[in-house]
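seq/struct pair 1
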Amino acid sequence: MTDSLTAVILGVIEGITEFLPISSTGHLLIAEQWLPHQTDLFNVVIQTGAVLAVIPLFHKRFHQFIFNWADPAVRDYFFKIVAAFVITGAGGYALEKRGFKLPEKLFPVAIALLTGGVLFLIVEGWLGKRQRGGGENAPRNDIKHVTWTVAIAVGLGQLIAAVFPGSSRSGTTILFMLILGLSRPLATEYSFLVSIPTMLAAGGYKIFEAFHHGAGAMQDENWKMVVIATLVAAVVSFIAVKWLLHYVQTHTFIAFGLYRIIIGGAILWFVIQPGAKPSLDHGQIHAFAPVIVQHLVPVQFADGKIF
């Protein structure tokens, strides 16, 4: 497989999954079991491209922040976005200083995908029963209903997603907000508005570190692949988010829950079945084998010979 084709595939995956509640990190980890492993800088840059591309979709809200600042509801909504961002940023910085590294293994990704999928079905089922009578149980769709409790929950939800690959930043935060009574469109919008500065700040920090401390790594990076993947991720992300914002106006998240359960179950089965592995080269097999050995292969077979 050529570098350009690899970049296109990874760009498409990043663009589709970055904002949809199905976990971009989890899908990229899955893809890298078959595709060549990319650097952290590569992943950060293409993620940043995907994030920047969706900002125009929220131009009406940004227009309010600039020209309707005198409106207390608009001002309050803005500060609650900032609060959630600060909670996530402070927590993420603390994790970074403690040396936290994202586990690059399929087993926890499968569990997180499955868990999130089941939770979506449970929450949507509960909401259906709760809202059937309408009245005070009807979903709240005004920005004034984004409370400080919601802001704190979203900030913490983003941290949970940062620690558990496969849980999904948008998936976790949207679940919290649905439970707290927000409508699907408002929960989706607020989740995305908080994630934009969060991901841009994280990406900017990583890129700064790479420039400041890793001159050699910068020179060794395949920038042609980075550019191709970033452009593809940006275009696909714009389309995916525009579609989702319309989709949640009239649909539940049940389809996403089912998708997560199917793909999470498939990955779990794949990990459990050592013989059901794809055709990989020696280097990829070496990277993939520890996932099975560490989590599910009996100790007597853990000498590596089965691979």
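seq/struct pair 2
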Amino acid sequence: MTSGSGRHLYGQVVIGLLVAGAVALFAATRAWASATVQTPGLPADHVSVSGVDGAPILAALAIAIMAGALAVVAAGGWLRQVVGLVVAAMAAWAAISALMLDVAHVPFNRALQESPAFVAAVRPTPDVSTWPNVAIAAYATAGLLGMVVAIRGRRWPRMGSRYDRGGEPAEPTGDVDMWRALDAGQDPTV
């Protein structure tokens, strides 16, 4: 594999992790189950629950996956591989949590009981949306990308130390020298 294709895969994986985390967060906060409570003599009330209502950890893990994508950029070598494994583990945990979460039962019943239109004799059947499937797919994608980082990440380029403060820079004498110093990662104002 050439260096160019490694950089291309590197960029795709980092962007993929950011997108998967963002999609998972968005999907986890959408209505997973909803229904309209209509009790005779009371105004109708729309009741809905999101994935986060049933499992608050889903939002935290989605944010952690996005942070992991940024850590992939900052880390290098074996540390990047560890980050990939951690991201894959978090994504697997989230995907399994979302898969096992049944918002149409306990979380929905809790929200139903808090509705001002709820009467025990009137129990609507909730409509379950496709957002759980979207969240599961996003977490699974993040898990696969985390494994790609764990397997291939060690060979990817590191974040450059070009702008780290090194030894004492030579004094720039003119405008052109100042621009060259900036290009070389030196601070011409020091």
